[in-house]
């Protein structure tokens, strides 16, 4: 089975084609700046690379361009689009309506649209990608894989807020968690790397990218995670504030800021970018630190402190943990962040091997010392493969 995986953002479209017989990537690409004056596409199939700058007006137009590349004699992997067996879509949120991946129909589309109120930056472009794919390939089965699914094993004591219960009953206001596809993949891979039964494993998964979240996983099931009703809660992130006193937005509103301005501040102008005043990219922050930039150092300190604090709380609810896994852009590629976080965790018996932390950067592997009570690992995440696996399972089950 050959599956096209689509991750549609507000102005981007990321894609891969995976052969599920051997889980090999046949091609992958990224269309960026959709709807802007100058869009771009980067595409490769293992033997040839294609790049182009052009104007792409919308996601349907972007997907048409991708479809042409999929069947291009030099850059593609298909002779005909009919060789695509299924399409898997990353979708942020569907509340409690769908708690696992599902074959897309009109009911699913309506539910994604209804839950855009919880994911206004993600659900609409996710849906745009789905509708464009349906229009261009109406006979190909399509599956929605939700970022929230893996976290649905959280008990009520973990997902409820201290609000009147009627708000949960009426509006389904609760903590949902995100990056679930990544956390699920990391959990499976960590168990393999450790040679342990996943049901006997207690681990903390740290997905650290521009968006960042932690998950406490026991026996292969999430018991808590740092993001909440939306991806804003939890860790300090690239541009998101993470946890703040709930009255901060109210205070800003009373100072004359509009609702949209407050939303933009908390989601795009806060976090590492807001504290440093420089960038949301940790590479820029660490470069500035070496040049003596005090606010860059402060941003780094706040960022790593919050991660360590959450790990400590998750170690408590897990009653100890076997492994700590770093993944995603920062987690996989930044030894300084990993070292700083692990330096806080000595009370749990965490000991990093500094040489391995450097030498296995970007590569992945076990980076803790032999006498560490907790195994610390770097594992490259692969959300696209996880989406493809779910898609394959659902489509095959439908045919039975």
TrEMBL record:
One of its GO terms (cellular component) is cytoplasm. GO terms for biological process: acetate metabolic process; acetyl-CoA biosynthetic process. It holds the Pfam family Acetate_kinase. Mg(2+). Can also accept Mn(2+). Its cofactor is Mg(2+); Mn(2+). The active site is at 147 (proton donor/acceptor). Mg(2+) binds at residues 7, 383. Substrate binds at residue 90. The keyword Magnesium applies. Keywords: ATP-binding, Cytoplasm, Kinase, Magnesium, Metal-binding, Nucleotide-binding, Transferase. It is an enzyme of class 2 (transferase). Pathway: Metabolic intermediate biosynthesis; acetyl-CoA biosynthesis; acetyl-CoA from acetate: step 1/2. The keyword Nucleotide-binding applies. ATP binds at residues 14, 207-211, 281-283, 329-333. The record marks 179, 240 as: Transition state stabilizer. It is found in: Cytoplasm. Catalyzes the formation of acetyl phosphate from acetate and ATP. Can also catalyze the reverse reaction. Belongs to the acetokinase family. Homodimer. This is Acetate kinase. It comes from Defluviitoga tunisiensis.
């Amino acid at each position: 089975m050959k599956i096209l995986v689509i991750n549609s953002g507000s102005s981007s479209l990321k894609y891969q084609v995976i052969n599920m017989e051997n889980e090999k990537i046949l091609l992958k690409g990224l269309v960026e700046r959709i709807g802007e004056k100058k869009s771009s596409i980067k595409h490769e199939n293992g033997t040839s690379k294609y790049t182009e700058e052009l104007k792409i007006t919308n996601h349907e137009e972007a997907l048409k361009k991708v479809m042409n590349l999929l069947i291009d004699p030099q850059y593609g992997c298909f002779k005909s689009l009919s060789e695509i067996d299924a399409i898997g879509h990353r979708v942020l949120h569907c509340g409690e309506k769908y708690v696992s991946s599902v074959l897309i129909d009109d009911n699913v589309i309506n539910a994604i649209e209804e839950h855009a109120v919880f994911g206004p930056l993600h659900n609409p472009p996710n849906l745009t990608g789905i509708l464009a794919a349906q229009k261009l390939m109406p006979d190909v089965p399509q599956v929605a894989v939700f970022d929230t699914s893996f976290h649905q094993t959280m008990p009520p004591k973990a997902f409820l807020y201290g609000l009147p219960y009627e708000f949960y009953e009426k509006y389904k206001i609760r903590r949902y968690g995100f990056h679930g596809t990544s956390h699920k993949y990391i959990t499976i891979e960590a168990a393999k790397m450790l040679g342990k039964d996943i049901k006997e494993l207690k681990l903390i998964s740290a997905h650290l990218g521009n968006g960042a979240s932690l998950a406490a996983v026991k026996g292969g099931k999430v018991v808590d995670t740092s993001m909440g009703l939306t991806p804003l809660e939890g860790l300090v992130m690239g541009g998101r504030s993470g946890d703040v006193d709930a009255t901060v937005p109210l205070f800003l509103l009373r100072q004359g800021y509009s609702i949209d301005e407050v939303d933009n501040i908390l989601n795009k102008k806060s976090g590492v970018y807001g504290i440093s005043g420089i960038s949301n990219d940790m590479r820029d922050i660490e470069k500035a630190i070496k040049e003596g930039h005090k606010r860059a150092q402060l941003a780094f300190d706040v960022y790593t402190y919050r991660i360590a604090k959450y790990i400590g709380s998750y170690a408590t609810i897990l009653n100890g943990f076997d492994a700590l896994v770093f993944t995603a852009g920062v987690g996989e590629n930044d030894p300084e962040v990993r070292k700083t976080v692990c330096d806080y965790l000595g009370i749990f018996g965490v000991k990093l091997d500094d040489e391995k932390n450097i030498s296995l950067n970007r590569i992945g592997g076990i980076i803790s010392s032999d006498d560490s009570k907790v195994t610390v690992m770097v594992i490259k995440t692969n959300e696209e493969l996880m989406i493809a696996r779910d898609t394959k399972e659902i489509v095959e089950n439908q045919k039975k």
